[in-house]
Specification:
- By secondary structure, the protein is of the alpha+beta class.
- The chain is 57% helix and 11% strand.
- The chain has a 4-stranded mixed beta sheet with strand order 3-2-1-4, with helices on both faces.
- Helix 1 crosses helix 3, helix 4 packs parallel to helix 6 and helix 5 crosses helix 7.
- It starts with a helix and ends in a 13-residue tail after the last helix.
Length: 207
């Protein structure tokens, strides 16, 4: 209801970017946005923080930053976005590896663990690329829930870091600036959760 115009502009531009890149390189590309774009509170100065999804056969043994496929895609993203929006790619997930892991019921695959985590929390761009993988994941909910359980402790640790708490204060201030005040009961619940005082289940999805 309270999504900013700056957020809408960034979402629109990312959707255009995904289609342009698909035409240029002929491969599927998708993103999950995190941070201020994900929660709809972007301002003029806000970066675009994203998770990149590609199909890659290199294996990326040295991490995605050392992958030539990733470097080419990153350069193209920055070229298309230009100076209007600053993008930060926080992670890159190889959908080929995730798909293989799901079919093999591999509980130890870090790429799949990250995929499950991002899909639980983030807002997708060009979702039709991600959808078949998520459908495959959802075909075995026991497997998905087991993965969610294995990474829930990471969210507990993440949610109590000072930077995460600072981010909540920042978003609350932004809401206040446009005249929106969180009900004290909701604010208290969020604060208790951030401080590790409540055992909330990890959400299946955040719109």
């Amino acid at each position: 209801m309270f999504q900013t115009q700056e957020t809408e502009e960034r979402i629109d531009r990312l959707e255009q970017l995904a289609l342009l890149m698909e035409d240029k390189i002929g491969d599927d590309i998708a993103m999950d946005v995190v941070g201020s774009v994900n929660v709809g509170m972007s301002e003029v100065s806000s970066d675009i923080d994203m998770i990149l999804y590609l199909r890659c056969d290199s294996g990326c043994a040295e991490g995605f930053a050392g992958c030539e496929r990733y470097r080419q895609t990153e350069a193209m993203i920055r070229e298309i976005l230009g100076d209007r929006f600053k993008a930060e790619i926080l992670d890159c997930v190889d959908l080929n590896r995730v798909e293989k892991s799901i079919r093999e019921k591999n509980y130890e695959c870090e790429a799949t663990q990250r995929f499950v985590a991002y899909r639980s929390l983030c807002r997708p761009i060009h979702y039709r690329v991600i959808a078949p993988i998520e459908d495959l994941l959802n075909a075995d909910m026991a497997y998905r829930k087991e993965l969610e359980g294995s990474i829930r402790s990471y969210f507990r640790i993440f949610s109590t870091t000072s930077e995460h708490v600072h981010s909540f204060s920042k978003y609350e201030a932004r809401l206040g600036a446009v005249g929106i005040k969180l009900p004290e009961s909701i604010r208290g619940k969020i604060q208790r959760y951030l401080q590790g005082g409540e055992k909330e289940p990890m959400p299946d999805a955040v719109p």
